[in-house]
Amino acid sequence: MSLTMTRQEATRARWALAAMFAGGGMLVGAWAPQIPLLLPKHGIDKAVLGLLILGLGVGAMLAMLVAGKAIQKYGTLPLLRLAALAQAPVLPLVVYAPSLPLLALAMVLFGLMMGFLDVLANSNAVEIERRLGRAVMSSLHGFWSLGGFIAGTVGAWIISKTSAETQSLVAAGAIAALVLIAMPYLRGAPPEGAPQPGTAAAVKDSFLPKDPGIWILGVMALMAFVPEGSILDWGALYLGEAFGADEFTAGLGFAFFAASMAITRFLGDRLRNVFGGVRIFFFSALIAGIGMALAAAAPGSWIAIFGFAISGLGCANLVPVIFSAAGNYPGQRAGAAMSVVTMVGYAGILMAPASIGWLAEHFGHRVTFGGLAVMIFGLAALAGRTASADDRQVE
Fold first, then answer.
1. Which residues, including other chains, have CB under 8 Å from residue 390's CB and lie 6 or more apart?
2. What is the DSSP letter of 195?
């Protein structure tokens, strides 16, 4: 972000980036109620669906690796604009796919677009935090969750009243409109490889950091994302199969999870300023684990949905704290650290659910979600690793 940028421009850039996060959340929220419909449409079982989701994850991971390198050469701004707009048509491509091979190809493309946007938006968020001199990461992720809640709830209703095809087109149009309105106000830093005004030329170093602390943060991000990806990809199936929930009710599992995350994330920056990142991370992990355990043991669909919502309250600030810790990790470039933590972390939401599908097929959803609760409790023991989250390097 240029050192000559005014504070007003930086503030506008923050809100424009919030729209990019919201658009990404809308895409995922609109996708959630579509997932169960793929089974009868293409005559596949949950194992095949898991492989399709794995293809989505592979596409996303490839995009994240390329995006991390591209940021160093081009900066976040031009790439973020392109990725935000390119995501709009991917859901209709998936929904309208006439055959299983074309569906698999569309899923990989879906993952590519998601992966590019995730890396670029979070890297741009670190730049804006430094320009404004305060934390904004949690609230930006809150806009992602808000977009997911709106698209998930409205999308489930549109599907129940019209069709999956209509819902995908409405979602694509809404995302494109939001991105086009906000795009002119985005701002970004010069490429990492380019000299900053008034500073010496950037020192060339390895793209992948060797400090094991960065990789530990990446694994923590993966552990934090696994529950989110599991509820997104399998929550609706769990509610439908275990409790006989209809399409609308089944779609509310992820919607309420995303809603509780959004509410908590909008408070997250203020809470971190008062209590610190480590303490917030510790108690968030405990709350998330309790909610997931409740969902696993629930006697009915609405108790399970309530458990997912409680889990969302806890999961809300886990990833934002980890990303801020990575962006401010001592002795590391923000872009290099973010590329590793984002790439490893997003494996949890993009690739791990494919394994969750296999576990659910063989052991049932209750056992699977119960195991996720245990894993989330394990994150609380690693809270001290996020200490750098509050050490912002204000530019």
1. 272, 276, 277, 324
2. P
Considering the domain boundaries, does residue 198 fall inside one? no
Torsion of CA 103, 105, 106, 109, to 10 degrees: 160
CB-side neighbour CA atoms (13 Å) of 325: 28
In a domain, 97, yes or no: yes
Q: How far is the first Cα of the chain from the last one, in angstroms, to the nearest whole number?
A: 9
The tokens describing 17, both together, are 């980036």
CA dihedral over 337, 110, 264, 189, signed as positive or negative:
positive
- Token pair of 190, please? 């010069």
Question: What is the percent of the chain with per-residue pLDDT over 70, rounded to a whole number?
Answer: 90
The residue count of the chain comes to 395
Q: Which residues contact 31 (CB under 8 A, 6 or more apart)?
A: 91, 94, 110, 232
168 pLDDT band, cuts 50/70/90, is very high
DSSP labels, 150-193: HHHHHHHHHHHHS-HHHHHHHHHHHHHHHHHHHGGG---PPPTT
Quote the number of domains for the chain.
Answer: 1
Any domain includes 197 = no
Closest alpha carbon to 23 in 68, 71, 81, 96:
81
What residues make up the domain containing 254? 7-192+205-390
Distances (CA, A) of 315 to 6, 42, 256: 34, 33, 13
Question: CB of 308 within 8 A of CB of 253?
Answer: yes
Q: Of the spans 130-139, 315-324, 327-336, which averages the highest pLDDT?
A: 315-324
User: What DSSP character marks residue 196?
Assistant: P
Query: Lowest-pLDDT range, 60-64, 271-275, 345-349, 364-368?
Result: 345-349
Whether 330 maps to a domain, the answer reads yes
What is the C-alpha to C-alpha distance for residues 297 and 325, in angstroms, rounded to an integer?
A: 34
**Per-residue confidence (pLDDT) for residue 146, from 0 to 100:** 86
Spatial separation of the C-alpha atoms in residues 312 and 262, rounded to whole Å: 8
Helices 7-31 and 247-275: angle between axes, nearest 10 degrees: 150
CA distances to 117, 173, 253, 344, 345 from 60, rounded to whole Å, are: 10, 22, 24, 11, 12
CATH number at residue 272: 1.20.1250.20
Please give the Cα distance from 283 to 287 (Å, whole number).
6
pLDDT tens-place string over residues 72-115? 788 888 999 999 999 999 999 999 999 999 999 999 999 999 88
